[in-house]
Specification:
The chain is of the alpha/beta class and 410 residues long. Helices cover 25% and strands 23% of the residues. The strands form 5 sheets. Strands 1-2-3-4-5-6-7-11 form an 8-stranded parallel beta barrel, surrounded by 5 helices.
Length: 410
C-alpha cells in the first residue's frame, strides 16, 4: 500500500553554469546546487564567478528557488587560507546553504557565516545514525547520505536522528566506482585529484586485468579479447520508486550532473518533477505514466540500475565506457510568433523529420518539420550549421527555453 506523505520532497538539480541553472529552474527544480570558481568538486564545468553567483541567486530568489554552493573539495594547506574570504563573499551574495565534506571547512563556515545552513556532502561518507547525530550536533542542517546505503538503512537513520535533520540522497545520474566518491585512481594514473574536483574518470576506460597468484603465475581476467570496462558503473535511476524513497524519509531528491548539458538537466528535472507531483495528486492510485519513464531514456545515459537502495550492488557496464544516446537535441526555442517557432540549431536535421518538443513542466509532443526556414525565412531542405537561427512552422505556441530533439537513427 502506498503511504501518503504530507511534506513534498525538494527536487534538487545540478547547475554547472547559468544556462544549466536556467534549465533547472524552468523545468521544475525547487533548488539548485552549483560551485564557485574554487572549492567545488567539479572543475570541468565553467562554474560561477562571484558576480555570476550573485546574478544566479537573484534570479532564483525571484522564482522562489534555493541555491546551494558546493564547498566539498578537501582543501590543502595552501588553499585553506583563501576559504574564509570566499565563504564570506558567498554568504553576502545570499547562498542558502554550503555543501561541505571537510570538518575544517565546517568550522570555518560556522565561524564566518553562522546564519547560512550547512549540508554535509556525500563525500563525507555518512552511513550510520551516530555520525548523522554528531554532524547535527556540530551544526549541520542536512546530511547528503552515502550512495552505498539501502532504503532500509536510510529509514533507520531517519528514525534515530533529530526530526529537524534533513536527509538528502541522489536519485539519478552517474555512479562512482569508489566509496562515496573518494577515488584515487585518477590521482595514480593521471595526477588529477578527484577529491579536488579534477577527476579524469579513468573508471570509464577499458582495461585488461591480470591477477598475480602464488609462484609467479598470472591469470588473465578479461571479458573478451578487447578487454573489459570492469570499473565502469551503471547509472542510477529511481524514477519508478518515488514512494519508496519517501517512505525511507528522504527530504531532498538529488539529480547528479553538474558536468552534464542543459538538455540533460531539463529532461531529468522535468521527469522527476512530474513523477513527484503525480504521486501527491494521485495518492494510493499512483502509477508512473509511461512517458515519464521514457524521458530518462531520451538523455545520454549508461545502463540504469537502482544503485544500493534495494540492498544489492548496482553492477558494471562491461561492454563499453560510453553512453547510450537514443535522442539528440537539434535546437533550442528562442521565441514564437505568427505560427513560427524560432530556434537556435544544435545538430543537423532535415525537412520531413519527426521532431519532439520538451517544454518546461509539460509533457513532450511530436510534430513533423514540414518546412525549415532560414533567417530570411527562405525555405531550406536541411539545417547543417550549429547555432544557425531558423524558423519552423508549428500549429501550437512553444515557450522559449524548450528543447527540440529527434531520435537517433541506428
Amino acid at each position: 500500500m502506498i503511504k501518503k506523505h504530507s511534506v513534498i520532497p525538494e527536487l534538487l538539480s545540478p547547475a554547472g553554469d547559468m544556462e544549466r541553472l536556467i534549465s533547472a529552474v524552468n523545468f521544475g527544480a525547487d533548488a539548485v546546487y552549483l560551485a564557485g570558481k574554487e572549492f567545488g568538486m567539479r572543475a570541468s564545468p565553467s562554474n560561477f564567478s562571484m558576480e555570476e553567483l550573485e546574478k544566479a541567486i537573484k534570479m532564483c530568489r525571484e522564482k522562489g528557488k534555493k541555491v546551494y554552493l558546493t564547498c566539498n573539495t578537501l582543501p590543502r594547506n595552501s588553499e585553506i587560507e583563501r576559504l574564509p574570504e570566499f565563504i564570506e563573499n558567498a554568504a553576502a551574495a545570499g547562498v542558502d546553504a554550503f555543501i561541505i565534506a571537510d570538518l575544517g571547512v565546517l568550522d570555518i563556515v560556522k565561524k564566518t557565516a553562522p546564519h547560512v545552513q550547512v549540508h554535509m556532502s556525500t563525500q563525507l561518507g555518512v552511513v550510520n545514525y551516530m555520525t548523522a547525530r554528531m554532524l547535527y550536533n556540530m551544526g549541520a542542517n542536512r546530511v547528503v547520505l552515502s550512495r552505498e546505503l539501502s532504503l532500509e538503512e536510510i529509514s533507520d537513520i531517519k528514525a534515530k536522528t533529530n526530526p529537524k535533520l534533513e536527509l538528502e540522497a541522489f536519485v539519478h545520474g552517474s555512479m562512482c566506482v569508489s566509496f562515496s566518491g573518494r577515488c584515487l585512481i585518477s590521482n595514480y594514473l593521471t595526477g588529477r585529484d578527484a577529491n579536488r574536483g579534477n577527476c579524469s574518470q579513468p573508471c570509464r576506460w577499458k582495461y585488461s586485468l591480470v591477477e598475480e597468484k602464488r609462484k609467479g603465475e598470472y591469470f588473465p581476467v578479461i571479458q573478451n579479447d578487447a578487454g573489459t570496462y570492469f570499473f565502469n558503473s551503471k547509472d542510477l535511476c529511481m524514477i519508478e520508486h518515488i514512494p519508496e524513497l519517501l517512505d525511507a524519509g528522504i527530504t531532498s531528491f538529488k539529480i547528479e550532473g553538474r558536468a552534464k548539458s542543459a538538455y540533460y538537466v531539463a529532461a531529468t528535472t522535468n521527469a522527476y518533477r512530474h513523477a513527484i507531483d503525480d504521486f501527491y495528486t494521485m495518492g494510493e492510485k499512483f502509477q508512473l505514466e509511461p512517458w515519464i519513464k521514457e524521458e530518462v531514456f531520451k538523455i545520454s545515459h549508461r545502463e540504469y540500475s537502482t544503485g544500493f537502495y534495494f540492498g544489492h550492488k548496482p553492477g558494471q557496464v562491461y561492454s563499453s565506457g560510453g553512453y547510450v544516446r537514443e535522442y539528440e537535441v537539434v535546437g533550442v526555442c528562442e521565441g514564437f510568433k505568427d505560427g513560427l517557432m524560432q530556434i537556435s540549431q544544435r545538430n543537423k536535421f532535415y525537412k520531413g523529420d519527426e521532431l519532439e518538443v520538451i517544454e518546461p513542466l509539460k509533457k513532450p509532443f511530436t510534430f513533423i518539420a514540414e518546412k525549415i526556414l532560414d533567417e530570411s525565412e527562405l525555405e531550406i531542405s536541411s539545417a547543417p550549421h550549429a547555432m544557425q537561427k531558423l524558423f519552423l512552422p508549428i500549429d501550437r505556441e512553444v515557450k522559449p527555453g524548450a528543447f527540440i530533439r529527434k531520435a537517433v537513427q541506428t
